[in-house]
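Record pair follows.
FIRST:
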Amino acid sequence: MQVSVGFLAVACVLSALRAGEADELQYPPSRIAVVGAGIGGSSAAYFLRQKYGKHIQIDVFEKGEVGGRLATVDMEGHQYEAGGSIVHPLNLHMKTFVKELGLPVKSPGDSRLGIYNGEELVFHESDWFLINLLKMLWNYGFNFLRMYMWVEDMLDKFMRIYRYQTFDYSFSSTESLLHAMGGNDFSTKLNVTIEETMHKAGFSQKFVDDIVSATMRVNYCQGVDINGFVGAVSLSCLDSGLWAVEGGNKLVCSGLIYASKAQLIQGTVTSVQEKVRPMKSGGTVKLYELSYESSTGPQMEMYDIVIIATPLSKGVSDIKFVDFNPPIQNFKNYQQVVATFVHGQINASFFGCAQPCDLSDVLTTNNRKLFFNSIGAVSPVKSEAKSSKPVNHKVWKIFSVEPLAKDQLNLLFESYHAVSVKNWLAYPQYNPPEKMPPIILHDRIYYLNSIELAASAMEMSAISAKNIALLSHHRWYRKTDRIDQEDLTERLKSEL
């Protein structure tokens, strides 16, 4: 009898401990909303499913086409990348996505690069590697070599995030995430321009004016006054081994949503409001009421967690956050980018290039007289047999900040017979020092696109998506030991 009493006493203690544990862990969430089906929203759905398991309902809202700013345009029956077009070989999330989804990839074709300053080509690539090397040394000394070493050092620090996320560590702000990767180096880069950053690192003014400026103008349609971190990300695109998805990069988004078993809801989210609802077991629970417009009219759904995966910027999304204190408002404006696709014969004399001109990509330096940022020959997203036509008769993609007038097209082309235009609000208008928007907009509302104020890229969105999947899970279950931990590099060495 004494044994039974003792057993019961132990059982009571264990029951009490379990009850306390249950209070600590709370009940599991049942519904999560993701607003936006671009690379950020689709990868968020994928990572949320991995973290929360198969029983949770995930709804992805999209007002347009799946893919967001990963989109294609049609030109004479062929599709061409109009948004994010290339992926770096060290972008491990994107590499994992295409592997898991079984998507084939392709490498960009060979190109001949020229840099145009509005009057002449200040740099012009040759077919011969040795000649290009001599040109680079003559014009820029060892700046190219130093740049590759400088970018490699940045990428070494950047790669730490994959290890942190593998061990389920998350960050409650973009600043803390970047600091965990690169310490004060990354934090400092956010607050100075890429021009100041390159000068401090010892690069020549000519190199900054020609190479760095041209790279910023083609990748972000902005100059060397953007922040040093996004500038370094931009320069990494000069690396070798870049790739794209066969059939279009947007296939990653549709594949991730399918793999996540999320429900795709075609509709425009109009507002989010916190509501208190009674529970069957007694008491109340706080949920988020998400209102949206669909083809059948206004609709409303309730969610435990809401993830905003679209820029909260005027002209991009007009979501109203009702009765939140402090109020949730729009953040920084986004840069207009116009992508103009032209099938025609390029006017080589405009660039001072002798016919036949072997240039297939022309970048530009910062000259206010120039009405375009770059022009380059592009291939369809689906690989085809090589055309027998000369490069001048290919489809060309022109980036500019304003739509091109007919007389401007006539300057760039001797003749053309097809034009297609895609107008974007593509990336934030970078102007350091940068103030990052919060990741946590409210108790259980998360802003995935906060990271774009540091740098806008496919992989940055995927990193933010996984961080928010981890962060929302840890905060729901109060696992504070996995949030904003310091000295993770040393900690992980000891854990291993």
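SECOND:
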Amino acid sequence: MAGIDDEEKRPEIYKKIFNACEDWGIFQVVDHGVDTSLISEMSRLAREFFALPPEDKLRFDMSGGKKGGFIVSSHLQGEVVQDWREIVTYPIGNRDYSRWPDKPEGWRAVTQEYSENVMELACKMLQVLSEAMGLDKEALTKACVDMDQKVVVNFYPKCPQPDLTLGLKRHADPGTITLLLQDLVGGLQATRDDGKTWITVQPIESAFVVNLGDHGHYLTNGRFKNADHQAVVNSSYSRLSIATFQNPAPDATVYPLKVPEGEKPILDEPITFAEMYNRKMSRDIELAKMKKLAKEKNSEDLEKATNI
């Protein structure tokens, strides 16, 4: 992004971002303006948290319907294979960091500075995407009404049998845009052919991976892809990633901002982001149940065949 404010360099940067959004919905940005020392400190403190004894981490347990905290293996209800990861997550609504873990010392203050910097970068990216679409540069930001933010820190321990699990199952994010910081171990993969081929997103130190979510996909009438991705684990190294989700307000309208002549809107009618999110979660849970039933049926059929 170096030179993005330079009139001569800007068109080439815009072109690269625009092409990446059309082809993949996922790309990496460097020279983005977020201080590398802040990024390093956020990552260091995150690793210190996950190295704490279980009893210290479980003080922030998010079970029982809490909106944030610490959890081991987040997975959909009824899913056969659970995610191989530990997570600490909090919504950062109204810039409230009081519920962020108080260990290690200083993590709350660093998280505050980090999340504010990433919010600024996300808004800048949305301006770029708006202008790339031929819209007013504030168009995507205004469509969010009141942009919400959630920070999710993922820790993927070394896995003795990585072929039997995933760090994070295949999905697309529901929100507008996600900025992901991944360490140099790597493990993020993306596909654009419905999972037939997976490409590993090679880590670049201090770079942010930008994922477009479902909301961004719908606002652009499907022109920009919602990044189809997953995370894999390995048996040799643990891995850390920090995802900052930029989501619209629950009552924000989800509908294409611009429909090119000759095209049909990707949605039948406008809906709220809350409704869009609920529909997505219901579909994902139903799909998980279907996968589980199919696996159980296959096991039964195999057992019958063996007995014969």
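COMMENT: The first strand starts at residue 26 and ends at 29.
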